[in-house]
Design goal:
The strands form 2 sheets. Strands 8, 9, 10, 11, 12, 13, 14, 15 and 16 form a 9-stranded mixed β-sheet that branches. Strands 1, 2, 3, 4, 5, 6 and 7 form a 7-stranded antiparallel β-sheet that branches. β15 and β16 form a beta hairpin. It is built from 7 helices and 16 strands. α2 packs across α3. It folds into 2 domains: 115 residues, Aminotransferase class 4, branched-chain amino acid transferase, N-terminal domain (D-amino Acid Aminotransferase, Chain A, domain 1), CATH 3.30.470.10; 153 residues, D-amino Acid Aminotransferase, Chain A, domain 2, CATH 3.20.10.10. It is an alpha+beta fold and 299 residues long. 26% of the residues lie in helices and 28% in strands. The structure holds 4'-deoxy-4'-aminopyridoxal-5'-phosphate. The site of 4'-deoxy-4'-aminopyridoxal-5'-phosphate has 13 residues, from α5.
Length: 299
Amino acid sequence: MATYFNENTILFYDGQMMRATEAHTNLYGQTLHYGYGAFEGIRSYDTDHGPRIFKAREHYERLIRSCELLGIPFAYSVEEMTQISYKVLESNGFSDAYLRPLVICDPSMTLINGQSTRLVIAAWEWGAYLGEKLLSLKISPYCRPHPRSVHMEAKAVGHYVNSILASSDARKGGYDEALLLDCDGYLAEGPGANLFFEKDGKLYTPAQGHILPGITRATVFEMCRELGVSVEEGRYTAEDLFEADSAFFCGTGAEIIGIKAIDHKEFKQAWTDSIGSKLRQMYLLLVREKTTQPVSIDA
Ligand code: PMP
């Protein structure tokens, strides 16, 4: 069994810092029983100025927005949560770490939205979620949830049942990860990352509506603007992807990671020659606040 804490681990729970071994939760809440809760996945990086949380504001604004969309009462401000996050990192002596804020609803076995919640902010040291090697993906038999069934732009706990089904199915088939289509059969995203593909020197990514609009995805847009690479959002099919030159996943946990093959069909272009590979290098410098060297794009 994976361990994310030991007897010395400190986390923030229910208004105070405490040992992870002493944190307890009530077993009669809607988050545990029904998946009704919201969370975030954030990274901090070791920089020359000490540990820095990458895009803390954007992540905590999304957590507040997720709660609003779900009707979950929540009172912490972005500033408070950012401060607490730095305290959690400091208490554990972490620099390069993954932060996991989670909003847990108080006991209620009804199906009516709760009246009060508790915030957890835990941290652990976690390498790149999908590893460092190029990925072999399976187009999943599971589609992303219908946007009229749930709020797809919220990072809701229960949405990850769909992600776990898709990832586990891909792993069982010998693939590294799944790629999910939306309910209309267009490309959507990975179980925990957004998709981009490159064709003739341009990038393409599924439009908002059926995906979690990732903070790393937004960072890719920013980096592309800086590099003069054009990015188009739209509705694309698996055939568009099969005809692409290269592709990558991006997310806080996964960072930017190249894709080798989809359903065993390999991309023609060498990953090292792709725009994605340049963006990956740039991203890894950006999050560590290293001055980004100008990266030439000759595509
Ligand atoms: N899609 C899904 C389903 C995710 O879980 C994540 C990870 N939060 C992403 C995309 C990427 O989002 P971000 O870049 O904000 O981490």
